[in-house]
Amino acid sequence: MKLGFIGLGVMGGPMAGHLAKAGHEVTVYNRTRSKADAWVAKYGGHAAATPAEAAAGAQIVFSCVGNDDDLRQVTIGPEGVFHGMSRGSVFVDHTTASAAVAVELESAGRDRGLACLDAPVSGGQSGAEQGILTVMVGGDAAAFEIAQPVIAHYARAVTLMGASGSGQKTKMVNQICVAGVVEGLAEGLAFALHAGLDAKKVLSVISKGAATSWQMENRGDTMVDGKFDFGFAVDLMRKDLRIAMEEARANGAELPATALIDQFYAKLQKQGHGRMDTSSLMKLLSDR
Amino acid sequence: MKLGFIGLGVMGGPMAGHLAKAGHEVTVYNRTRSKADAWVAKYGGHAAATPAEAAAGAQIVFSCVGNDDDLRQVTIGPEGVFHGMSRGSVFVDHTTASAAVAVELESAGRDRGLACLDAPVSGGQSGAEQGILTVMVGGDAAAFEIAQPVIAHYARAVTLMGASGSGQKTKMVNQICVAGVVEGLAEGLAFALHAGLDAKKVLSVISKGAATSWQMENRGDTMVDGKFDFGFAVDLMRKDLRIAMEEARANGAELPATALIDQFYAKLQKQGHGRMDTSSLMKLLSDR
User: What predicted TM-score, i.e. pTM, was given to this entire model?
Assistant: First the structure.
């Protein structure tokens, strides 16, 4: 299948790579051209000079960029993919962005005969590299049927959650849950250290029961060791929590603990730790 | 082995039952005498008129009562077990109580030639009934060696965490982690409902990844259904968080989110929901 892919960062690069390895004809675009050239050298396919050029003739065009503004630029912007896509083709956006921009693009796409799916992912860089992401999709069911088997090249679960924006909203729920888990874990482990306990021994005991979580099992020991130079960055988490809190403002949901934890992430950014893993909340509560 | 057991509530009753079923000679005491008689009718053994009488001649005496004051009463109080226990015997307390009272009793016991272990449990009523509790122990290693194989009749894990009070402090870490997880989950699910998502479908997707937890897997669906009439009660959680926050005050740990969540539990109590499951934080954020 002829495909376009916009944005070859730590997520988009390997995702597009899985499409090429599966035999699809992929044309890529990246803001920094050298990254696109490096990608082509590794996977084959073509590098385009603009998003519109990458989209020309493609049945599905994917994007994985930074934020709402980046996303508008590569779609409805002057050289955006919407100017290159053919009627009846499908646009799949993997950026974690607002539900509002998803609805805005879906509407703009419909006017041009394009179907748009918001499809944020979870699973991180290693999930992208291994091709085992979880993809939460919002949009039209017919477009989903077309895109789903292609997305499956880099995902182990691809689920249609509802109308346009529903993928983004599902991702927000995920991040809200993560924030609570990580802060509880950070407070618990910092308390353990202050109490003079062997924190790793505590983890080995309580991880068998009702307190356990993916975060406890995968980040507990590294938090005790004070290792935060890996994983999902504080800067990205802050972006995601901002989107979630904006959505909550619009839909009337209350996020009292999430709002507090967002402030803690703000403090980490201010201290220069924006690129550390989200588990670095631990740093604010302990000498780790 | 000749054993004493003080406190036959929903936890202590089945725990003492496992000891009797294993062939030990168990003498029980309960503040409400009829419960002790019912226990004897079910499991055999003897009912005593006072804690001291239940402790007479026992090699190990167990307790599982309500709080610090109850614990003092049944140990160092006028008819407490310390007045009945023989030198060289071991006292094992399964109450979730303060680390301070554990240290206090350990010291008082030492003066009388008694070893004391603080040994709070996790796993809840069903864990007690099935005999698969997790037991976190603080105190003397030699006393632990004596008690461990007996405790194992109702536990799947019995771990010595350190000196007197360490069992209680480990339990506090557990409850701090649970509080964060549950509030994050409640905010996430309430957000999902406000956003018009199918919250159970959201759970089925995000429970595969970094947001997942025991609470999400075991309480997520019941929270969406608004079912809170089971499980670990808000009143008990508030008691445990009070102990944790007092300990943090003493050891210098900060618990900002835990303190906030404790206030939410206070609100639930005020609304008359003190006997609901801890997952009822959901009620404060949604119409469930």
Answer: 0.96
Buried b (16+ CB within 10 A) or exposed e, B132-154: ebbbbbbbbeebbebbbebbbbb
B60 with B89: CB under 8 angstroms?
yes
- CA angle, B42 as apex, B66 and B126 as ends, to 5°? 50
Give the ipTM of the model, two decimals please: 0.96
Q: Which pLDDT score is estimated for B21?
A: 98
Burial category of B23 from C-beta neighbours within 10 Å (exposed 0-12, middle 13-18, buried 19 and up):
exposed
Q: Which of A171, A208, A227, A267 is catalytic?
A: A171
CB-CB neighbors (< 8 A) of B256 in chain A:
187, 260, 264
Q: What is the pLDDT of residue B143?
A: 98
Subunit contact A257:B255, Cβ cutoff 8 A? no
Q: What structural domains does chain A harbor? A: 2-163 (3.40.50.720), 169-284 (1.10.1040.10)
pLDDT tens per residue across span B94-111: 999 999 999 999 999 999
Residue A19 is encoded by which pair of tokens? 């499409």
Place of tokens 């493609």: A58
Categorize the per-residue pLDDT at A170 as very low, low, confident or very high, splitting at 50, 70 and 90.
very high
**Quick one: what percent of chain B has pLDDT higher than 70?**
100
* Interface contact A188-B195, CB threshold 8 A: no
Best A126, A148, A160, A181 member to test B by mutation, with max B CBs in 10 Å, is A181
